[in-house]
Specification:
Layout lengths: L1 H11 L11 H19 L2 H47 L2
Helix pairs in contact: 1-3
Length: 93
């Protein structure tokens, strides 16, 4: 169902997610960036390259998983609405 993928990518994709300054999400993301910088400082150039490839692969996997979860949740909501409407319709038969 491509319309759901388009909806996810245009409206809800994580790369466009904004967090409020001072929120837990913002603090954790900032801390993660600081730990990453510390780690990179300790690694050789080759190890840094390996870490960056690892992170790109992990980020791609996470993006696919988040998109799939969004689509499954949307489908579940649609099935619930169909069930509710069906129950409502059966009530008047």
């Amino acid at each position: 169902m491509y319309v759901l993928k388009d909806l996810w990518r245009e409206c809800y994709a994580p790369e466009v997610k904004r967090s409020r300054r001072g929120s837990e999400y913002h603090r954790l993301a900032q801390g993660l960036a600081e730990r990453r910088a510390e780690l990179l400082h300790l690694l050789s150039a080759e190890a840094q390259s390996t870490l960056e490839r690892f992170e790109r692969t992990k980020d791609t996997l996470s993006a696919i998983s988040e998109e799939d979860t969004f689509i499954e949740g949307f489908r579940m909501g649609a099935r619930m609405m169909l069930d509710v409407l069906g129950a409502h319709q059966r009530q008047f038969e």
